[in-house]
Each structure stands twice: as structure tokens, then as C-alpha cells.
Design brief:
The structure is a single chain. This protein has twelve helices and seven strands. It is globular and about 50 Å long. It is α/β, with parallel strands linked by helices and 332 residues long. The longest helix is centred in the first third of the chain and has 23 residues, at 15-37. Helix content is 42%, strand content 9%. The two termini are 38 Å apart.
């Protein structure tokens, strides 16, 4: 089986590999949705359909030694950074083969070999964690970078302002990436937030900021890449706002009936898979026949994987007490 780290390294500088991983995420989320509907997934789950370019564009700018603190909408982040579909689906389905042994579930993914810190179900919970990682890197004098990925609604909470303020004062090597998908849970951004361009909030902290097209992987890679290099070279933090859209509702219980008529269809014309396909075809890196083959193969592979994972072992009851503490080393 390919390791998470090998999958992670395969992204660098390979546009076709990035596209294949985007298709994998899309088909993975479809399978997850079907399994949830069939009652094979406990609790709830949050899909990232429509946001694949942001996950892959971000991942392709980072090194495995960098760290990412993500949100509960974490499947795309985990797969983009290199976790295998088996380890992610196993975790979602509560199996011992999951990346956290099946005790974390859909909202709590982690694999330190590729820099994925435990994703958090707490709104904005990853921002102070990423800032703390940045402080650790600064003290250690390493060239690593911390990335916080969070939604538009999280820019209205205290942790957002506290984290940006601290990072700016200490010039921490952190990149704050706001995944502005228009909705904070069930509320449209214009109902909760008095400004449209959230990246401008960084001006309160004298922090560089930018808005990028979150549906275009090249725009994502360029913008976040600049911010990552600024942080890595000692230039301090950046706030990046990715303008994107979630094609699904907030969670699997949400049919998104609150959306204005035609809004989804408008954004679907900018589907990141479609945008990427058009670019790859124009550059003669792939044919439509190859694209169809990639999608068909990915769909069948993930369907087979789902059947396999359903038969994977359940975690032992004692697993809930694992990974809570680290035993003290002798002589400490």
C-alpha cells in the first residue's frame, strides 16, 4: 500500500497528479454521502464537494514538515495532504484501520507524517493551534510553516482576532487561510458579517492579505504559495481569503433549501474539476478520453474500497484511552 508520505510527495509540480487527487476527493465524498444515507456512518459528516481546488492547491505549496490545522470539513484536507482513502474512510466509518484508529470519526483526522494536525470540530479552533506551531518553529529556528484553514464564519470569533494579533506582533511563520464558501453553517455571509472581503480584516493587524479564486487551483497555488514563502523566509503571517463555494449543505442533514434560486447553478459553472479539466486539455496534458477514464477508474476503485472497509475490524473499547498522554522518558 502506498504510504501517506509517498502520496504527499507525488503532488509536487505535477498538475495531472493534482487533478487525479481532486477527482479522488469528489468521488470519495460521493461514496461518503451514500454510506451515510445507508446508515453506515455514525453521527454526521461534512462534505467538501466544490472545494477540491483549495485543498489541493494549498497542499501542493507545502512541505511534509509544515503543519496544517484544519476544520471539521476535513476529508478533502486529509486526502489532499496525502492520507490514503482507506485510512480516511476507515476513520469516518469508525474502523480500527482509520487514521486515528476509528475513535475520531469524520471530523477528527490526523497524520503527523504529512503534517496534518488533528482537525477540529470547534469553530476556528485550529487558528491558535497553528499560531502555536508557528511560535514553536520560530523558537526552534526551523524553516517550517503553520497553516490554519477555517471558514468565513470563524472570522467573527475571538480566536480569529487573537491569533492574527499575536502572529502579527511576533511575526510568526503562519498562513491563515479563510475558506469563504459563502455560508457559515446555514447562514449566508451577508446575514452575519458586515463586509464582503474578509481578507481586509488583516489590515487591523498590519498584516499582508489577499483574496484568491478558490475554484482555480493555479490561483490557489500562486496566492498561498506566496504567503507560505513569506512565512518561511521570516516575513511573518498572511491572511488569504479563498472565494469558493460548497455544493452540498452544511452537513448531511442539511438540504440547503435556504439558498437563493440559481446560486448553486451559477457556482457550478466554476466547478474546480471543470476549470482544471479545461486548463489541462488546453495545455495538451490530458485528453477528454483520459479524463473519462480517470473518473471511471476512481469511481470503481472507491466503491470497491467502501465494501472492503465495511468489513474492517472495529476498534477495541480500550482504544478511547490511547494517545491521551506520552509516557515520561527514563531519567526525566
Amino acid at each position: 500500500m502506498t504510504s501517506s508520505l509517498e502520496r504527499r510527495k507525488a503532488l509536487y509540480g505535477n498538475d495531472l497528479a493534482c487533478y487525479e487527487r481532486m477527482v479522488e476527493i469528489r468521488e470519495f465524498e460521493k461514496i461518503t454521502n451514500a454510506l451515510f444515507a445507508a446508515g453506515s456512518i455514525r453521527g454526521t459528516t461534512h462534505l467538501a464537494v466544490g472545494q477540491e481546488a483549495l485543498a489541493l492547491g494549498m497542499a501542493s505549496t507545502l512541505q511534509p514538515t509544515d503543519v496544517v490545522a484544519g476544520t471539521y470539513r476535513s476529508h478533502a484536507i486529509a486526502l489532499a495532504l496525502g492520507l490514503t482513502p482507506h485510512s480516511v474512510l476507515g476513520e469516518i466509518m469508525g474502523k480500527a484501520t482509520g487514521c486515528c484508529g476509528g475513535v475520531g470519526g469524520s471530523m477528527h483526522m490526523c497524520d503527523t507524517s504529512v503534517g496534518l494536525l488533528p482537525t477540529s470540530a470547534i469553530i476556528g479552533g485550529g487558528m491558535p493551534i497553528a499560531a502555536g506551531a508557528g511560535l514553536a518553529f520560530q523558537v526552534q529556528k526551523s524553516k517550517n510553516v503553520g497553516v490554519a484553514l477555517f471558514g468565513d464564519g470563524a472570522t467573527n470569533i475571538g480566536a480569529f482576532h487573537e491569533s492574527l494579533n499575536l502572529a502579527a506582533i511576533w511575526k510568526l511563520p503562519v498562513v491563515f487561510v479563510c475558506d469563504n464558501n459563502v455560508y457559515g453553517e446555514y447562514s449566508r455571509i451577508d446575514k452575519t458579517t458586515p463586509i464582503e472581503d474578509l481578507h481586509k480584516r488583516a489590515e487591523s493587524y498590519a498584516m499582508p492579505h489577499m483574496a484568491i479564486d478558490g475554484m482555480d487551483i493555479h490561483a490557489v497555488r500562486k496566492g498561498i504559495g506566496e504567503a507560505v514563502e513569506r512565512a518561511r523566509s521570516g516575513g511573518g503571517p498572511t491572511l488569504v481569503e479563498a472565494k469558493t463555494y460548497r455544493f452540498s449543505g452544511h452537513s448531511r442533514a442539511d438540504q440547503a433549501l435556504y439558498r437563493p434560486e440559481g446560486e448553486l447553478e451559477k457556482w457550478q459553472k466554476r466547478d474546480p474539476l471543470l476549470v482544471t479539466e479545461q486548463d489541462l486539455i488546453a495545455r495538451k496534458l490530458v485528453t477528454q478520453e483520459k479524463i473519462d477514464q480517470i473518473k471511471s477508474t476512481m469511481e470503481s476503485d472507491l466503491a470497491a474500497l467502501a465494501k472492503k472497509v465495511e468489513n474492517d475490524p472495529e476498534p477495541q473499547l480500550s482504544a478511547m484511552f490511547s494517545n491521551i498522554w506520552t509516557p515520561a522518558k527514563a531519567g526525566k
